[in-house]
Amino acid sequence: MTAHTTLAAERFEADRPRLRAVAHRMLGSLSEADDAVQETWLRASRADVGDVANLSGWLTTVAGRVCLNMLRSRGRRPETPLDAETADAAGFAAVPAESGDPEEEALLADSVGVALLVVLETLAPAERLAFVLHDLFSVPFDDIAPLIERTPAATRQLTGRARRRVRGGGAPAVDRARQREVVDAFLAATRGGDFEALLALLHPDVVLTADRFVIPTPGPVSVSGARPVAEGAMAATGRARFTGPALLDGTVGLVMAPHGRLRLVLVFTFDEGRITAVDVVADRERLAGIEVAVLDAPAADVTGLDD
Predict the structure, then answer these.
(1) How far apart are CA 152 and CA 146, in angstroms?
(2) For the purposes of burial, counting CB atoms within 10 Å of the CB of 254, is it exposed (0-12), middle (13-18) or buried (19 or more)?
(3) Closest listed residue to residue 89, CA positions, set 221, 246, 205
(4) Nearest to 23 by CA among 64, 73, 51, 54
(5) CATH architecture group of domain 173-290
(6) What whole-number distance in Å separates Cα of residue 38 and Cα of residue 240?
(7) Which of left, alpha, beta for 210 (phi over 0: left; psi -120 to 50: alpha)?
(8) Which of 7, 91, 139, 252 could be stapled to 179 by a disulfide with Cβ–Cβ 3.0 to 4.6 Å?
(9) Taking CA 30 as the corner, what is the angle to CA 29 and CA 33, rounded to the nearest 5 degrees?
(10) CA 209, CA 277: separation in Å to the nearest integer?
C-alpha cells in the first residue's frame, strides 16, 4: 500500500498570497476570500498529494472550486436591500459594515481595480471562475473545465464571453483618455481633500443630481454650482476609498463598490475638459441598465484566445 502524503503547512503558506488573490477576485470580499483560503487548506491538508506534480496549480483549482461553491451559495441567499443600509448626508451611500480591515480591503480593491470587481460580480459563477483562473492566473482550460463541468472548448468560449463583458466598448480612445484624466483628477482631489483642485475640474454651472436611493429623501436631489458640488464631494471623502474609475455605457465615470458590491455610480458629462454634470445613481433598476466595463481590462495571459 502506498503511503499517504500530506501537504506540509509551510508549503501551503508559500502559495497563500496567490490563493488569497484568486479568492478575492472570485468573491470580491477580503473576509470571504480569507474564509475560502482557510477552507482550501482544510481540504488540501486531508488530501493525498503524493501524485500531484504541480502543487501550486492543484491548490489554485481547489481554491477555485471552493469559491465556486461559495458563489453558488451566495446566489441562493436573499440580498439586503440598499435602502436598509444607512446613508450619509453628502449623497454617497454608506459603506456596509463587514468583518476585516477596511483599509486593507480598500487598498486591495484599488490595486485590483474596483471596476473589475464590479464587472466580475455581474458574471455567472462559471463565467467568473473561468475568466479569473484563465485570464488572471494562467490556469489552462483543461484544468478549469472539470470544475465547471464543461469541455475545454466550451470553457474557452465561456472565458471569451466574460472577457468581452469585462472590456466593454464605448468612446473613442482619444476622448476616453481625456475623460480618464479628468475623472482620475476628480477622484484624487476627493480622496486628498484638495478643494481647489476639485473646483478647477468643475464647470461653474455644473449640476449634480442624486436619486432618492442615494440619500433618504422622498425624491431626487439636485445641487447647482461648482462650489456646492465640490463641497458635497469633499464631505464624501471617506467613501472615495472604495471608488474607482470605470466605463459606464462607454463613458468614463466612477463606481463605488465596497467589498466588491456595486452601491452607486457617478456618471459624468464633460465639456472641453471640465465636468458639466454629475448623476449619482444608486437605484438598483437604473444600475442594472448601465453597462459597467473595465478601463484597463486585463489581457489574457495566453494570446489568440478572444474567440
Answers:
(1) 8
(2) buried
(3) 221
(4) 64
(5) Roll (3.10)
(6) 30
(7) beta
(8) 252
(9) 90
(10) 8
* Cα(165)–Cα(112) distance, integer angstroms: 17
Phi, psi of 138 (to 5 degrees): 60, 30
* Cell digits of residue 84: 436598509
Tell me if 275 sits within 8 A of 202, measured CB to CB.
yes
- Residue 172: pLDDT band (50, 70, 90) is low
Cell numbers representing residue 129 in the block: 471562475
What is the DSSP secondary structure assignment for residue 140, as one 8-state letter? -
Contacts of 162 (CB under 8 A, 6+ apart): 123, 127, 128, 130, 131, 135
In the chain, the percentage of residues whose pLDDT exceeds 90 is 53
- Select the more confidently predicted residue: 63 or 122: 63
C-alpha span between 7 and 66 (Å, rounded)? 18
Domain ranges of the chain: 173-290
CA 163, 166, 170, 173 dihedral sign is: negative
* Matching residue, cell 442594472: 288
